[in-house]
């Protein structure tokens, strides 16, 4: 038992001495390939993994100039990351029809694997439209039937 405690203690000391590991990628269109396969060891003062997600039209020309995701991942400090987040609080809306930019901060090895790409609002809108169509159909049906009776 004592040996186990010492072992756990040693492991703890060893682990805290290790650098944080974060996924790293620069300006990728989605959370695939580079963004989920490339990691780096952070510098000693970097205790946070930072992800920046931008939603806007690409810099290069495309036929319909549709907005797309731009994903950036890197090591950061909790202060730098929180500052970036704070600075973007009015731009992080995740509305599909507007440009937006969000920063996510997390602590822990490879914690910035998942990214909120923010199609939640779009899904919600579609659900709402589908729901109102259904309700309209149901009501129209009821009302029509009632009038005919
Ligand atoms: C915080 O941001 C500054 C300015 O961009 C940068 O020079 C510094 O390296 C960053 N600190 C960390 C720990 O990443």
UniProtKB/TrEMBL annotation:
InterPro entries per the UniProt record, alphabetical: Snake_toxin-like_sf
This protein's UniProt keywords: Disulfide bond, Signal
Alphabetical list of CDD domains matching this protein: TFP_LU_ECD_Cold
Signal peptide: 1-19
Signal keyword on record: yes
Name of the protein: Uncharacterized protein
Organism, scientific name: Patella caerulea
